[in-house]
Every structure is written in C-alpha cells, then in structure tokens.
Specification:
The complex is a heterodimer of chains A (about 300) and B (about 625).
Chain A: H1 2-29, H2 34-37, H3 44-53, H4 60-72, H5 86-121, H6 126-140, H7 143-157, H8 173-199, H9 202-209, H10 214-226, H11 228-243, H12 246-251, H13 257-266, H14 270-298
Chain B: H1 2-26, E1 50-61, E2 70-81, E3 99-104, H2 121-126, E4 134-136, E5 142-144, E6 147-152, E7 158-163, H3 178-188, H4 198-205, E8 211-216, E9 219-223, H5 251-257, H6 259-264, E10 273-279, E11 283-288, E12 301-306, H7 310-318, E13 324-325, H8 332-336, E14 342-356, E15 359-360, H9 387-401, H10 405-412, E16 417-419, H11 435-438, H12 445-454, E17 461-468, H13 475-487, E18 491-498, H14 500-509, E19 515-520, H15 526-533, E20 544-545, H16 547-557, H17 562-579, E21 582-594
Parallel strand pairs in B: 3-12, 3-13, 15-20, 17-18, 17-19
Antiparallel strand pairs in B: 1-2, 2-6, 4-5, 6-7, 7-9, 8-9, 10-11, 11-12, 14-19, 14-21, 16-21
Helix pairs in contact in B: 9-12, 16-17
Classes of the chains: A mainly alpha (about 300), B alpha+beta (about 625).
C-alpha cells in the first residue's frame, strides 16, 4: 500500500510538471498579450517598453524558469491585465467555483442515484425510458446550449429564477443544473447497471425467498453493494465539476475560476491562465489521488502492487 | 430484438418530443407572436456654438527693462465660449430614485488612474465617475466640461484653458483645480502607461520648449512650442475621442493613497456618479452624486454588469433585469419583440474599410519589402499621370465598384448603417461640401470588368485577404462578402482569418502584400487617421505611402486655421477617392436597446460599446 501511495504521488507530481509545461507553451502560442494592451497607434518604443516591463522580452526558458520558481514559492506572478497577484484573484473566486461545483455535485447525485435505482427496478417501464431520455440529453446536449435553453425557459419565460449572476440564492439553480446534468446521466447509468448486476445475484434472490420486504431488499441489500462504483466515480465527479465549470460560468456570468480562465484566454493573460490551469490541475489530481486511496479501503478485493 | 427496437424508438420519440418542447418554449413558439408597435424616436440635437472675436487686454512684461515697468499691449485672441449642454432636456429637480442596470460584454478590472487607463475602462470611466477636459456633442463638436473656456494665441502655439470653478471631487476630496489637471496629464504619460495617442499627448502637452503651467487655481497655460506642427489641443483630450480621453483625477487622493492602491481601490472623480464597489468581471456599483455641478442623475444607483455572453445579456434584458446593454445587431429581431422596448440609435458608431497593402511609393531604403509592382494593384511608377499608374488605378477602381455596399449594409448590419465612399470622413460629411455627392463609388460590375480588361487583367487575378477582427459589426464578414462579390469580376481571394494582435506587425513593417479588413471609431478629424496611417512617419500603415500624401498631410498638420486645414483634407479625400488606394465600406450605427423602465435621452457621444451621459437617462412615464 505504501509503495502504491509513493508511486501515485510521484506520478501526480510528474503530471503536474507536464501540465505546467503544456500550459506555459500553449499560452504563448495563443498570442502576444502586449498587442491587446496597446492602441493601434502606439509606437514601437511603447511596445518594446511594455514587453520588457512584463518580462516578455526574455527567452522562453528564462520565462519558464521564473514561472516555476514562482510556483515553488507559492506565487503565480501578477496578472498582466488586472495588475493584481494571480494568487489573490484565484482566492477571490475559489468560493464561487466551489459553491457551484458542490451544488451541481449534490444535484447530480441526488437526481442520478435514485433515478438509477428506480430505473433498474422498473426495467423496461415508461419510467425507465424517461430516465434514459434524461441520460441521453445530459450526455449529448452541449452545456452552452443546454444552459441557454434552460435560461430562456425558466428565467425568461417562467421568471422562476434569475437568468445569470450570483446575487440571489436561487441564481445557482440554472448553472448547477447545466453543469450537473451530464453527471446525472453518468450516475444514472452507472447505478442502473450496478443495480441490475446486484439484483440478479444469489443473495438478493435468497433475501427475497426469505420474505424480506421488497423495499428493504432494494435499498438496504442491493443498493449498498451496488454503490461501490458510483461512490468512487463520485470523487472524480466532484473534481470534474469543480474544474470543468468554464462553460457554465461563462454562460451564466458566474464569477468563479472558470470565468477567470475564460478572461485569461481572451486577454492572453499568461500568468493568470497558468495560475488557473495549475490550480485546476492540482485540485483534480488531488481528488483523483484521494479517490484511489479511498478505493483501496472501500474494496478489499483490490490489491495494489 | 423487436422489443428492444421498440424501446429504442420510445426513447428517441420521447427525447425528440422533450427537445422540441424546450426549443419551442424557449424560442417563444408557445403562442403566436403578438403584433408589437416599435416606437422609434429620432433624437436630434442642435447645439449652438458662439464664436466671438473679442479684444483682450493682456499685460505683457517688456523683455529688457531697466526699471520695473509694465507695458500694455492689445492683442486679438480667438476665444471659444460655450455653455455646458446636452441641452434639450428641461432641468429636472426631482430626487434621484431607483436603480439603473446596464450590461456590457466587457467592463474589465478597475483602472482608476489616468496612468493605467485603457479600453474599455477609459470610456466607461469618463461616462460615469470621471469627467474629461472636453466632451463631444452628438454632432461631434467639442463642448466644455472641466475646461470652461479655451483660447489659443494667434499662431496656435499657446493655449489658455479656463477651468470650471466650484467643482468638487467625490467623497470630500476637495475642489478641482489646475493642479489636478496638470497632475492627471502628467500621470497619463508616466512611464509604464499604455494609453493610445501617448506620443501625441506627450508632444502637445509636454512640448520640448513649452509644457503646462498653472497660471492660477483655475487657469492653465499649455505651450506647445517645439512640438512641430500646430495641433488642436481638444483632439487629444475629449472624452468622445476614445483613445484621447484623459480622466481628471484628484491629485490629493492619488498621492495620499499611493499610485498602485489608487489605481485599483477607490475611484475619485468629479462626474455625476460616485464609486461604491467594483467586482472585476461581475459588477461595478455606483451612486448618484447629489447636487452635481452639471447634472444630478435621475437614478439613485447605477450597476454596470459584465456579462460576456450575448445570449445571456439578451435573456437578462428580456427578463427585465437590465435597462440597457451592449448588443450585437444579430439580436435586433429578438429584442424588437419585447414590449415597450425602444432603441437608442446614433449614426457614426464605426467606419469599416478594406486596406490595399503594398502601395509604398515613397522610396525608403529602411523598408524590408520594396514595392512589388508585379502585383496588379501596384504601379511601378509613382507618377499619377503615368500609364503604369493608370493601369494599377483601374484595377483598384474595379475592385471598389464591384462591391455592392448597400447590400453589405442590409445583410451584414441589418440595415443599421450606410455605405461609405470617403475614407475617414465619418461625422464630417457636411464639411466635404460639394464632394459629398460626387465622391461615390457606384456599384457597377460591368464597368469593373471593363476596367480590368483595360488594365490587361480581363481574366482577373488572385489576391490574399486577411480577415482581421475589429470591434465593429460585420468587419470580418465584410471581407468574406467582398471576396464573393469580386469573384463575379474574376478576382479570386485567398482568405485567412487573423486576430489583429497577430496581424499588427505587418501593419507596422509594411510587409503585407494583400488586403485586410479594418475599422475605425469616431475621429476628431479625418487628418488624424491620414497622419497616423497614410504617411511614412506613421507607426502603422493602411497600405499606402505616396509623395502627394506626404506633402499634403504634412501641410495640413501645420495649418492651424480649421477652414484652410479642411480644404487641404478635401484635396486629400479627392486624391484618395480618385486613386482608390483604400476601400471604404460602410458606417455602422450605435444601437442600444432601451428597456421599458427608462426613456431615450440625448446621448452626446461616443463609442459603439459604451453608453454616455447616463445622468440624463429619464424614468419612463
């Protein structure tokens, strides 16, 4: 177990380093921020001065070294456009992203799991078909389209919730549903298939034969054993929901890290983009690491090297 | 198997039904659209500018005196006296009430000092918290703001600016005086600033042999001696003229808080709106300044939201959460259906054009790419009377008259604009005089084919088109449509999309040998763009350098008398038109939807992305 943990830790660090190289290189390929910061009529000298003040006149290896040194000191540098420390900007928005991530996680679990169970026990019924439709929409509809449709229906037509922003408590409903729907579908399918497997097993048949009430068989005996795959998937779901909020946050003007990432890309704000991507990567890898550990504890059948 | 297929069909049918229902409901298909009367109001503003010649008695100290003696000398000065306007509305005495909500696609982080100003903050800033030295009215004329009166010496070198008295900075930061103006100008050119027109601002306000000085608390003298050509000061300090706008900040406040903190923490200005809080990429909250020296807003609070997605802005507007917003013209049909909506339309939001590159007719050994006269639109001979020039001119004229500009306006900007034929003159058409009716490229593809045949390009030719992005509607699509229209006369385009940031180096080094799409906002005078992008000294270039332009533009820059200067500009316009060295395309309107809670107001100026004069927005009755 200890060897496994060390190996996973090393792998996580290597992955993080690769992410840093990738984001550093891709940010620079995407365009030069200085040309976005200056007016068309600015002189060549203004451009040169600006490049120099931002450290962009240095070679890429030099810039990368400065970037890595900063990371090791827990600093991401200063945003080119916002002129504020990237760390502070990330910190400011972390709460909003967590808020949205957790809400969509709760939504995806609270809807996906019961639907999965009911779908399995009423296999072939209309309910099962409706559940499949929900799953199909969730997995095939692009979030930006889904978000806009939900917005026009529930905010504009019905006026039940605000169309965007984070000013009212109910503002979170639409972005959470948009973000979480994909995972509702994933959870539904996963729970359904796990439940179907378990429901066919001998011990369930035995329980039924012994006259255990149906509800008890389903919710106590079957579900408990069917939960291992969905629970481990839940960890990844949480990580993905928190780090995958760019589209939902942009569509719903939700002031979180996803929106910050969008702004960084739009403005070619290298330090900000690097900071946000590294933060997302750290969070995702940490979640995956924890899930691996949990998995080992939950399922003793699994053996690690 | 059959059973499974049936189940699958069930799923598909139910899915489709749900999707159709959602689409139907979301797109407004649940009920037949009710006929909506769209109220259009045409806002006309007439500003009367008084220009008086008055005799001023000046006390001029004699240069060499033995005894202290004052010699009185009578000089004639041209003084512009104007009255603060946006005048057509009656003064309102009611208390500010209610909250005004406006959304832009981009508000950006706080930039609360002149040094850090940049787009789009500068325009939003000077429309709310700050005021600039001058403002512009709807006709593009300069009107007073913090500078009450201004006058220039007869040679145009020394300007005297009389400042408004009794104007207070927000939050008790004291009265606006000459020291604040001088501080703000200094701050705007400090090292590290990336303001547009930095070079010109330095040249004019901080001339080698002159500079700025406070004569008294409310008088500033600007000596432009040594700055080369005479400049009109107002060109580069009027809020309407976007890149020239300089917000006047409180010297005491910035110095007390420190540059870095003042730039992001608190906004102190003299405008009708006072800063409350700024949450980057979310909202900027402002409050009405009670008893403002110029106009107290009708609304008590103003929220400026940043909503980057167009459809999200539209949804908020439809849901009544916004009173106005930055909109794409593509949203016009949807917005027109909203009950009670009005539209604020101002002509002259932007002017688009297609640059024809490679016309470098001034011999310059420093250019990496010499003139390539193998290209059909470039002459080997700069002499406009030569045969070579005539052939190349015919090619360019053919390119121009084979474009159906009216069709482009109707299709690309929903008719919200007009075809443009004279490059750089948007807003100054009346000063073209008789040329206004003669400088028109009449759409005539048959004649275009004939011109190409005369230029020995009957089979057409190939040309590269860089579809560069600008913040004016349809800029990129305009290039695509132009290429399609040119196909009809045999000109074939190779199109590539390019962000302006990637294309800009070619603007600077003059290396591009093709076309590119471009656009301009309102300008103080056509000369500004001529002198910035059609001469050898320009940092960037729109594809043409020619001895005629060098001479005329330099002469115009050195001409202080406005009428004489405009005469020279008309000559340049005629030459540019006759030789078709650039392809003006269309002018696009500014269109903002106005929600049912508010009414139209006299918006004087300025930018396709920003609403101005928000203090005048009335409650809808």
């Amino acid at each position: 177990m200890q060897r496994f943990l060390v190996r996973r830790l090393i792998l996580t660090v290597v992955t993080l380093w690769l992410v840093s190289v990738l984001v550093f290189g891709m940010a620079r390929i995407s365009g030069d921020p200085t040309t976005l910061l200056i007016d068309d009529y600015a002189s060549a000298q203004t451009l040169t001065d600006l490049r120099s003040s931002l450290g962009l006149d240095k070679s890429w290896p030099e810039q990368y070294w400065i970037f890595m040194k900063g990371i090791l000191h827990g600093e991401f540098g200063e945003s080119i456009v916002q002129k504020q420390p990237v760390g502070a900007l990330i910190q400011e928005r972390l709460v909003a992203t967590f808020h949205l991530g957790i809400a969509s996680f709760v939504f995806s679990m609270a809807v996906g799991m019961p639907l999965g169970v009911l779908s399995a026990i009423q296999r072939g019924s209309i309910f099962d078909n409706v559940s499949k439709v929900i799953a199909l929409i969730g997995q095939s509809a692009p979030p930006f389209w889904l978000g806009i449709m939900l917005m026009f229906f529930f905010a504009v037509k019905l006026g039940w919730v605000p169309p965007s922003g984070r000013q009212e408590a109910s503002s979170i409903v639409l972005p959470a549903v948009t973000l979480g729907w994909f995972f509702v579908a994933a959870n539904l399918r996963l729970v359904r298939s796990a439940m179907l497997d378990v429901m066919d097993s001998e011990y369930i048949k035995l329980a039924r034969a012994k006259g255990v009430p149906s509800l008890q068989v389903i919710w106590k005996h079957a579900l408990r054993n069917a939960l291992i795959p969905p629970l481990t998937f839940a960890g990844i779901t949480l990580g993905a929901l928190i780090t995958g909020s760019l589209v939902a946050e942009t569509v719903f003007a939700w002031p979180g890290l996803g929106q910050l990432a969008f702004m960084a890309v739009r403005d070619s704000d290298y330090p900000l983009l690097q900071g946000v991507v590294i933060t997302f990567a750290v969070f995702y890898l940490a979640t995956a690491f924890l899930v691996d550990i949990l998995y080992a504890y939950i399922d003793p059948r699994i053996r690690y090297g | 198997m059959r059973h499974n297929w049936f189940k699958c069909t069930n799923v598909l049918v139910t899915t489709s039904a749900m999707l159709i229902l959602m689409l139907f409901a979301a797109c407004g298909g649940s009920a037949p659209p009710e006929p909506v009367v769209v109220v259009k109001e045409v806002v006309k503003e007439v500003v009367v500018e008084k220009e008086v010649v008055k005799e001023v008695v000046k006390e001029v100290p004699k240069e060499v005196v033995v005894e202290k003696e004052v010699v009185k000398e009578v000089v004639v000065e041209r003084v512009v006296v104007a009255t603060p306007t946006v005048a057509s509305q009656p003064p309102e005495t009611q208390e500010p009430k209610g909250v005004l909500n406006i959304a832009y696609s981009q508000v950006g982080p706080p930039k609360f000092t002149p040094k850090v100003a940049g787009a789009p903050q500068t325009t939003i800033n000077v429309a709310t918290v700050w005021e600039s030295m001058w403002h512009s009215d709807a006709q593009g004329e300069t009107i007073p703001r913090l500078v009450k009166e201004w006058s220039a010496s007869p040679d145009g070198m020394v300007w005297t600016l009389k400042l408004q008295e009794g104007v207070q900075f927000h939050k008790g930061k004291g009265e606006f005086t000459a020291k604040d103006l001088i501080f703000s100008m200094n701050n705007s050119v400090e090292e590290g600033t990336v303001r547009g027109r930095l070079v010109q601002t330095k040249l004019i306000f901080f001339a080698k042999e002159g500079g700025m000085r406070a004569v008294d608390d409310h008088t500033v003298e600007v000596d432009t001696s040594g700055s080369g050509p005479r400049f009109d000061l107002t060109w580069y300090a009027t809020s309407a003229l976007l890149t020239g706008a300089i917000q006047i900040a409180s010297k005491n406040h910035v110095e007390a808080l420190g540059q870095d903190k003042a730039a992001v923490e608190d906004a102190i200005g003299t405008g009708p709106w006072e800063h409350i809080e700024h949450k980057t990429s979310e909202v900027w909250r402002l409050a009405a300044v009670e008893d403002h020296w110029r106009k107290t807003p009708n609304f008590a609070e103003l929220n400026i939201w940043e909503i980057s997605e167009e459809s999200t802005r539209v949804a908020n507007f439809q849901a009544g959460k916004l009173d106005s917003m930055h909109m794409s013209l593509e949203s016009l049909p949807v917005l027109k259906k909203i009950e009670g909506v009005k539209f604020m339309r101002l002509a002259g939001g932007g002017q688009t054009h297609i640059n024809i590159h490679g016309q470098m007719y001034v011999d310059r050994p420093d250019l990496a790419n010499p003139r390539n006269s193998d290209l059909p639109w470039i002459s080997s001979n700069p002499d406009t009377a030569s045969d070579e020039w005539d052939r190349a001119r015919k090619v360019r004229q053919a390119m121009s008259i084979s474009l159906d500009r009216q069709l482009i306006v109707d299709s690309l900007v929903s008719g919200e604009g007009i075809p443009n034929h004279v490059f750089g003159w948007m807003g100054f058409e009346s000063r073209l005089g008789a040329l206004k009716d003669t400088l028109v490229y009449k759409f005539d593809p048959e004649r275009a084919r004939q011109l190409l045949a005369e230029a020995r390009y009957a089979d057409g030719f190939e040309i590269d088109m860089a579809l560069t992005t600008r913040p004016f509607p349809g800029t990129v699509q305009m290039g695509e449509v132009a290429c399609t229209m040119w196909e009809e006369v045999g000109i074939r385009c190779s199109q590539t999309r390019s962000a302006m940031s990637a294309f800009r180096p070619k603007f600077v080094d003059r290396s591009w040998e093709g076309l590119n799409t471009h656009g301009l906002g309102p300008l103080p005078e056509p000369l500004v763009t001529y002198s910035s992008a059609m001469v050898t000294k320009g940092v960037i270039n729109y594809g043409i350098e020619h001895p005629f332009l060098e001479e005329k533009i330099t002469e115009a820059l050195a001409t202080f008398d406005p009428e004489a200067r405009f005469q020279l500009q008309r000559e340049i316009a005629q030459w540019v038109f006759d030789n078709a060295v650039i392809l003006p395309m269309y002018q696009v309107n500014w269109v903002f939807p106005i929600g049912p809670r508010i009414d139209l107001w006299d918006m004087a100026c300025c930018d396709a992305r920003t609403l101005f004069d928000l203090e005048h927005i009335p409650h809808r009755r």
